[in-house]
Automatic annotation (TrEMBL):
<feature type="binding site">
    <location>
        <position position="372"/>
    </location>
    <ligand>
        <name>phosphoenolpyruvate</name>
    </ligand>
</feature>
<dbReference type="GO" id="GO:0005737">
    <property type="term" value="C:cytoplasm"/>
</dbReference>
<keyword id="KW-0028">Amino-acid biosynthesis</keyword>
<feature type="binding site">
    <location>
        <position position="199"/>
    </location>
    <ligand>
        <name>3-phosphoshikimate</name>
    </ligand>
</feature>
<feature type="binding site">
    <location>
        <position position="54"/>
    </location>
    <ligand>
        <name>3-phosphoshikimate</name>
    </ligand>
</feature>
<comment type="subunit">
    <text>Monomer.</text>
</comment>
<feature type="binding site">
    <location>
        <position position="341"/>
    </location>
    <ligand>
        <name>3-phosphoshikimate</name>
    </ligand>
</feature>
<dbReference type="InterPro" id="IPR006264">
    <property type="entry name" value="EPSP_synthase"/>
</dbReference>
<feature type="domain" description="Enolpyruvate transferase">
    <location>
        <begin position="35"/>
        <end position="444"/>
    </location>
</feature>
<feature type="binding site">
    <location>
        <position position="151"/>
    </location>
    <ligand>
        <name>phosphoenolpyruvate</name>
    </ligand>
</feature>
<dbReference type="InterPro" id="IPR013792">
    <property type="entry name" value="RNA3'P_cycl/enolpyr_Trfase_a/b"/>
</dbReference>
<feature type="binding site">
    <location>
        <position position="198"/>
    </location>
    <ligand>
        <name>3-phosphoshikimate</name>
    </ligand>
</feature>
<feature type="binding site">
    <location>
        <position position="49"/>
    </location>
    <ligand>
        <name>3-phosphoshikimate</name>
    </ligand>
</feature>
<feature type="binding site">
    <location>
        <position position="413"/>
    </location>
    <ligand>
        <name>phosphoenolpyruvate</name>
    </ligand>
</feature>
<feature type="compositionally biased region" description="Low complexity">
    <location>
        <begin position="10"/>
        <end position="27"/>
    </location>
</feature>
<feature type="binding site">
    <location>
        <position position="197"/>
    </location>
    <ligand>
        <name>3-phosphoshikimate</name>
    </ligand>
</feature>
<keyword id="KW-0808">Transferase</keyword>
Length: 458
């Protein structure tokens, strides 16, 4: 995959004024605030992207209506909701039920063809919905952002062919492609290589109960990344009444069954919490994220141990997760294979540490929103850190950082990484901050409120 090049980003981003004076959140550049004092705050975060999009898919395939409480409202989840509407389901995102965040009501229906699915850059939409489209009664076309057209899809498309669907792509195994739904899927057994994304397995499992023979998936290849996300899929399926066997390594089986309508509350997004908690460590301050679950399958929960190793005081109570800085930021040697979506924030934190760090086990994130290893090496390096890209990670040696333009490559987590660096790099401007709307549209406002409480949100 080519190294990220700023020209790959959107036209708003390309026309960047790198002026630190331009603080517009949806304009070309965002002058990030420098920390002048320790941060001290409770930061309430919206729901998990991964949970919201799993619940939406299961609800659309269920035997009755579902209620999703505190769902995430962001580009990825709105794309999922719209795609399910286009396939015939009802998704009402306007029901208030007394909370500030409207609950979403999903009403399943016979899935119809003749739909076009816009995936944006959402891995969950482009991977989870082809197996659903195979159940529709007609043709369903898929496409997405320019950057989405290089994200790997081949194993899930090939698996669908083995399981009985007709799928057409241009032979590259990427977007765009067309699924010819026939209203039912035989299902059965399939072997695939999910070393480039756990989402291939989650995708087949989520729709699997609705296939005539269910689905058995065998993985063959290098280890599957992001395993907690597969556990999340298995847990959400079981909670909806499906029968899943994940007892053998690299094999998953879901039986044909009905999926029950859901009444669920979405946990806060723990990966989106990471930059805020990290700010507590970086500024020797204190950040609490209320509502941190005691039990969770979210991979982002790993940030607790990471921050602890890097020198923070970390405590989890009924009130939430509290991270306090101690004045030290230790470098870390960490395998992020299971929690790879934390890499951009951990890499930024490593660039602010007192000693060098190594991040391993994340070769597959070259196929995330951008080639994240190349993007981080380039952007942390440009701001002054010494960064070496390895085959499966990064080596980061901290150095004093300078301000300047931090490119984001249409990657929401690059925006978060840039904001974190900006705490200690006066004059750092994050390019195209609106790209963060993929999972956290309020990020810029929340960040200003954390670092400069009481200041006007840009
Ligand atoms: O299933 C999910 O919700 C996700 C799985 C992971 O994907 P990969 O397995 O491709 O890393 C993760 O990085 C992504 O942010 C969300
Ligand atoms: C990899 C990510 O997203 P996606 O769901 O698009 O794969 C991410 O959010 O870090």
């Amino acid at each position: 995959m080519p190294s990220p090049d700023p020209s790959h980003v959107s036209s708003t981003a390309k026309s960047t004024g790198s002026s630190a004076a331009d603080t517009s959140a949806d304009g070309p550049g965002w002058a990030t605030p420098t920390a002048r004092r320790p941060v001290e705050a409770d930061v309430t975060l919206p729901g998990s992207k991964s949970l919201t999009n799993r619940f939406l898919v299961l609800a659309a395939l269920a035997n009755g209506p579902s209620l999703l409480r505190r769902p995430l409202r962001s580009r990825d989840t709105l794309l999922m909701a719209q795609a399910l509407r286009d396939l015939g389901a009802g998704v009402d995102d306007t029901t208030a039920h007394g909370s500030a965040t409207p609950d979403w009501v999903v009403t399943p229906a016979t899935l119809r063809g003749g739909a076009h699915i816009e995936c944006g850059l959402a891995g969950t939409v482009m991977r989870f919905l082809p197996p659903v489209a195979a159940l529709a009664n007609g043709l369903v076309t898929f496409d997405g952002d320019v950057q989405a057209r290089v994200r790997p899809m081949g194993p899930v498309l090939d698996a669908l062919r083995v399981l009985g669907a007709q799928v057409e792509d241009d032979g590259r195994g990427t977007l765009p492609f067309t699924v010819h739904g026939t209203g039912r899927m035989p299902g059965g057994s399939v072997t695939l290589d999910a070393s480039s994304s756990s989402q291939f397995i989650s995708a087949l499992l989520l729709a699997g109960p609705r296939y005539d023979g269910g689905v058995t998936i065998h993985h063959e290849g290098k280890p599957v990344p992001s395993e907690p996300h597969i556990e999340m899929t298995v847990e959400t399926l079981r909670d909806a009444g499906a029968i899943v066997d994940d007892g053998d390594a690299n094999t998953w089986r879901v039986e044909p069954s009905e999926i029950n309508g859901l009444d669920v509350q979405v946990e806060p997004d723990l990966s989106n919490a990471a930059p805020f908690l990290a700010a507590g460590l970086v500024t020797s301050g204190r950040v609490t994220v209320p509502g941190w679950p005691q039990h969770t399958t979210q991979a982002g929960d790993a940030i607790r141990d990471i921050l602890d190793i890097m020198g923070a005081d970390v405590s989890l109570s009924r009130e939430g997760l509290t991270v306090s800085g101690t004045g030290e930021i230790n470098g870390i040697d960490i395998d992020l294979h299971d929690a790879s979506e934390l890499t951009p924030v951990v890499a930024a934190l490593a660039a602010l540490a007192d000693s060098p760090s190594v991040i391993r086990g994340v070769a597959h994130i070259r196929g995330h929103e951008t080639d994240r290893l190349a993007a981080l090496a380039r952007e942390l390096g440009a701001r002054g850190a010494v960064v070496t890209e390895t085959e499966d990670g990064l080596r980061i040696t901290p150095r004093p950082l300078s301000g300047g333009l931090f490119h984001t490559y249409a990657d929401h987590r690059m925006v978060m990484a840039g904001a974190l660096l900006g705490l200690r790099a006066p004059g750092l401007v994050v390019e195209a901050p609106d790209t963060v709307a993929k999972t956290l549209p309020d990020f810029v406002g929340l960040w200003h409120e954390l670092v400069e409480p009481g200041s006007a949100t840009p």
